[in-house]
Amino acid sequence: MNDSKMIHPSSLVYDKYGNEKGLPLIILEDFLLRNSKTSLSLESNYFREFCIYHVKYLRWENFPLNEKSLIEDMVEKLEEILFSLERKPLLISQGYSSALAMKIAQDHPEKIRSLHLFSPVIFLSNDIDQAENYKDFFLWWTSGEDPIKNFFALPSLADFFWKYLNLIDICSKQEYKVELNFWLGEKHSIKDSLHLQERFPGLEVLRMDKVSHREMIHDPKVQKIMAWNFKKYLNTVRNNQETGKKK
Asked: Is the dihedral of CA 174, 179, 182, 183 positive or negative?
């Protein structure tokens, strides 16, 4: 796969690799795990028909929060990637980055082919790890070079996440233009999956046992299932191209 690194001077860093003419695939890694020692890479044999825009991590250090919203800047940079594409991409995210992916899909549904959220922040009422999720995020967010500045930035960030369930509700409507898929690991039970499907009837939920929710996309087994699942989008594109030729 051909690699090229793109670095924005502000909020995010991403790599572009794969088939330049392939179906676009945007991946957002979990920004809570940005310092993870495990570097995500996709198996080239599985994804050789895709052009991959891989957001490795989001840049928080030394960001001028008083000049511009960090969330606003990240959304803007992701929009730049989205608007540069000639074809609708598959948008994939993991963990806390799922809120950003959902925001992009809500604002630009006509630009997204499908949305795949791996181990998303669900905030289920019966999620026993809910408090731990908040604790992890709070400690991480306030651990930067300027914890006081980061602390006072929390309200706007919290407001963004509290709009999250509403985003799921909108995106899961049958008439909505973006297909929404949840991929869950061992953290969430079958009961959680059923609860999600009952609450959001238009939501596709795939749950896998013995798969860590922390770094789900890193798992080779999950990547193989992803590639198999994504073939339907490749087939749709091919069929549309053939139909266009016949016309």
From this structure: positive
pLDDT in tens, 169-209: 665 554 556 788 888 887 777 777 777 777 766 678 888 88
Tell me how far apart the alpha carbons of residues 205 and 36 are, in angstroms, rounded to a whole number: 26
| Predicted local distance difference test score (pLDDT) of residue 166 | 60
DSSP secondary structure letters along the chain? -EEEEEE-SSSEEEEEEE-TTSEEEEEE--GGGTT-SSPP---TTTSTTEEEEEEEEE--TT--TTTS-HHHHHHHHHHHHHHT-SSPPEEEEEGGGHHHHHHHHHH-GGG-SEEEEES-----TT-TTHHHHHHHHHHHHTTSS-HHHHHHTHHHHHHHHHTHHHHHHHHTSTT-SSEEEEEE-TTS-HHHHHHHHHHSTT-EEEE-TT--STTGGG-HHHHHHHHHHHHHHHHHHHHHHHHHHH-
Condensed to tens digits (0 to 9), the pLDDT of residues 76-106 reads 888 999 999 999 999 998 877 877 887 788 7
Tokens read off for 47? 């994804």
Residue, of 129 and 160, whose pLDDT is higher: 160
Phi-psi region of 144 (alpha: psi -120 to 50; beta: other; left: phi over 0): beta
Whole-number pLDDT of residue 29: 82
Tokens representing 235 are: 């087939």
Please name each of the domains of the chain with its CATH number: 2-246 (3.40.50.1820)
- pTM flag (> 0.70): yes
